[in-house]
């Protein structure tokens, strides 16, 4: 009796194989190059395995609404723009005040372990205990008296009444905190200073005295996680120029260029598939099922 090496698969194994191949075909969409209207490039990514692994825990592209979100220990903040040339992004905290809407705000915080720090925007703390000239953090005065005209401007916004202030309130309840520092918990300590809210201004626009024309948002800087460690800069540039998306392969998080139909360690022009451990460790769970099924099929085929 000669061993049957032909794939006479057991019917059940055949079904397992067949269904797992179906799930493989409909597996996760590859890394995307946009989220909403924002172009997404390294080190940002639209999901697990995309962009830099250091950014992944903090950045999400919401599946339902297509919003790009930064999450920290104090909340989730929509990202409204990213400048890849200056490594700066702008977030708009939903509970921040603007000229049209003023509201009580919780502390704004960043995670120390994350690649994000405060960038060049101006915080205007609103409805603080007067006189704000005596507000201090660790003994140093907080408010910049040379910018108090910004307080006078923003206090012309009728929305100040929402914060319990009278119309045209005295400006000694307002504090321009710039550059701002985060406390040991990584937070802009609004509550420690006893201020009700804040507006953050990225740009004063054309007419500096018109707070309706200011661009509101919090500017953050990010540092290129991993770029120096992995010599990723050149490889990633080539990958993006070839239409690919830079990503990483867990568990080692080595660089992967995610192309339309394959992954490679260089760029999408050169088809050199990414193979390290592809048969098991870096294969997706459905792919593992396929390999398991094939192995089992082979085993039973020989045994039969
Ligand atoms: C390529 O890599 C991405 C991200 O690491 C992953 O989601 C995807 O499944 C991989 N695709 C292939 C064909 O291996």
How much helical structure, as a percent, in the residues? Answer: 10-25%
Mean pLDDT, all residues:
84
Strand arrangement within the widest β-sheet reads: 3-4-5-6-16-8
Shape: elongated
Percentage of residues in DSSP E strands: 15-25%
H/E element sequence: HEEEEEEEEEEEHEEHEEEHHEEEH
Number of helices: 6
- The number of E-state strands comes to 19
| Biggest pleated sheet | 6 strands, antiparallel
* End-to-end Cα distance: 11 Å
Poorly predicted parts: 1-28, 277-288
Radius of gyration: 27 Å
Structural class by helix and strand composition: alpha+beta
What are the distinct ligands in this entry? 2-acetamido-2-deoxy-beta-D-glucopyranose
What does the secondary structure layout of this molecule look like, with pairings?
Blueprint (H helix, E strand, L loop, with lengths): L10 H15 L8 E2 L2 E2 L19 E3 L6 E5 L2 E9 L4 E4 L16 E2 L6 E3 L3 E5 L9 E2 L2 E2 L6 H7 L20 E3 L9 E2 L1 H4 L3 E7 L11 E2 L1 E5 L4 H4 L1 H10 L3 E5 L4 E5 L4 E2 L20 H19 L1
Helix pairs in contact: 1-6
2-acetamido-2-deoxy-beta-D-glucopyranose (NAG) binds next to strand 17 and strand 18.
Describe this structure in words.
This protein has 304 residues and is α+β, with helices and mostly antiparallel strands. It has a domain at 62-222. 19% of the residues lie in helices and 23% in strands. It has six helices and 19 strands. The chain has helices spanning 11-25, 148-154, 190-193, 227-230, 232-241, 285-303; strands spanning 34-35, 38-39, 59-61, 68-72, 75-83, 88-91, 108-109, 116-118, 122-126, 136-137, 140-141, 175-177, 187-188, 197-203, 215-216, 218-222, 245-249, 254-258, 263-264. It has a six-stranded antiparallel sheet, with no helix packed on it. The chain has a four-stranded antiparallel sheet with strand order 12-9-14-15. Strands 17-18-19 form a three-stranded antiparallel sheet. Strand 18 and strand 19 (263-264) form a beta hairpin. The radius of gyration is 27 Å and the shape is elongated. The protein starts with 10 loop residues before the first helix and ends with a helix. The model is unreliable at 1-28 and 277-288 (pLDDT under 50). Bound molecules: 2-acetamido-2-deoxy-beta-D-glucopyranose. The site of 2-acetamido-2-deoxy-beta-D-glucopyranose (NAG) has 12 residues, from strand 17 and strand 18.
């Amino acid at each position: 009796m000669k061993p049957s090496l032909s794939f006479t698969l057991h019917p059940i194994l055949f079904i397992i194989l067949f269904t797992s191949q179906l799930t493989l075909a409909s597996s996760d969409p590859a890394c995307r190059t946009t989220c909403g209207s924002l172009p997404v490039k390294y080190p940002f990514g639209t999901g697990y395995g995309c962009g830099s692994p250091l950014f992944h825990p903090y950045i999400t592209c919401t599946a339902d609404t297509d919003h790009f979100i930064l999450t920290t220990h104090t909340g989730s903040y929509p990202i409204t723009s990213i400048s890849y040339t200056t490594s700066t992004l702008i977030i708009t905290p939903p509970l921040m005040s603007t000229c049209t809407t003023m509201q009580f705000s919780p502390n704004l915080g960043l995670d120390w372990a994350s690649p994000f720090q405060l960038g060049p925007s101006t915080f205007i703390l609103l409805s603080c205990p007067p006189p704000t000239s005596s507000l201090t953090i660790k003994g140093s005065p907080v408010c910049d008296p040379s910018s108090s005209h910004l307080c006078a401007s923003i206090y012309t916004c009728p929305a100040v009444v929402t914060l319990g202030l009278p119309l045209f309130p005295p400006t000694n309840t307002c504090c321009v905190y710039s550059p701002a520092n985060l406390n040991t918990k990584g937070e802009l300590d609004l509550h420690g200073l006893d201020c009700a809210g804040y507006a953050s201004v990225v740009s004063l626009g054309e007419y500096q005295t018109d707070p309706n024309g200011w661009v509101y948002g919090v500017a953050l800087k990010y540092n290129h996680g991993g770029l120096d460690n992995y010599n990723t800069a050149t490889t990633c540039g080539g990958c993006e120029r070839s239409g690919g998306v830079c990503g990483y392969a867990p568990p080692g998080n080595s660089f992967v260029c995610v192309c339309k139909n394959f992954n490679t360690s260089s760029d999408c022009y050169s088809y050199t598939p990414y193979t390290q451990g592809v048969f098991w460790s870096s294969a997706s769970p459905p792919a593992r099922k396929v390999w398991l099924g094939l192995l089992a099929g082979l085993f039973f085929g020989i045994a039969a």
